[in-house]
Amino acid sequence: MTRSTSYRFDTKLIHSGYDALRHGSITPPLFQTVAYPFASATQAARIFAREEDGFTYARIDNPTCQILEKRLAELEQGEAALCTSSGMAAIFMAAIHLAEAGDEAVSCNRVYGGTFKLFTTTLPRMGVKVRLVEDPTSIEAWNELINDRTRFLYAETPSNPNLFVSDIQALAQLAHDHAIPLILDNTICSPALQLPLGLGADIVIHSTTKYLCGNATALGGAVVGEKDFVENVRADGYRNTGPSMSPFNAWLTLLGMETLSLRMTRCSENAMAVAEFLDENPKVRSVNYPGLPSHPQHNLAKKQMTRFSSLLSFVIDGRFDEVASFMDSLQMITSATHLGCNQSIATHPASTTHGQLSDEELMAAGIHRSEIRLSVGLEDLDDLMEDVGHALDKI
After folding, report:
1. Does domain 9-257 have CATH number 3.40.640.10?
2. Is the CB of residue 332 less than 8 Å from the CB of residue 346?
3. Is the pTM of the predicted complex or chain greater than 0.85?
């Protein structure tokens, strides 16, 4: 019994990439092994030469990871996927496959702090210069930074933590006009809410640690795109450096993904209500949430996303002591450096996830020192409102 790729999205979350009858288990099995037996030396040689299907070594491939890769590829409408040890590893693998010493790339300046430092510190040490677009709303600003050494464009939409929404179709058209790929980080939306490849992007990045897993148990990442690109990444940088996902983490992620649509619907509804509540509070200077009509890219978000996800950020009208007072007064919402899981989590980006950025870099990335990131979970909405309201009252 072969699972059909014509299944609808919610069915694919449970069945894609896996044949329960062949494996004799309704739940995908965990292949917790580092090596695989070969029937003969000739078969081993053919598998390693990619002339025959089969598994080589757990640093390169694994049956459980393969199920997750096939499922992700179908969900994102891509040809293939590659699981990595983290979202940052996925970005790094794609970047170093496309660019080498002397090459350049162009990225939106509204990206996660780790991505920002990868582009401004790590890749330059390897001879790759990444130019950051100061006004990412302007396609002309993007175009001005592209030259004959540019190997890819990169955007994260919506961005973490200020929820900037990039125009995927416009960026894809620009990239293709210059015969280069567009890499799009789809972590905040997940394929349940946004399909970048269908909007023209060439490569999709995920931190599977977040919404795909959903329960904060398994670190991981993924690269999704055309089969030739993905398999060449696997055979080159991935094989040589070893940022592989553990089979156990792939198994946990597969279990979490079964409820992705249900979770994204509920947490998006909760986040919309919390955003509206914050937007009306006099102690809050501003709220960043694509679902609010006041968001600068609200109309674009409605066009690209089916819902607005659970991540929002807001700026407290005060200094760090007021921010600390709010954070310390939360009773149910957890203070942690994570997002996209079942429980609500509050973070102060400027001192944690983006703490490695200087004041100038924070300003360039549009991150305020008094900004709080809130990943809204699946709790009862009244409890969420009471907790946020109680913390605001303590300021």
Report:
1. yes
2. no
3. yes
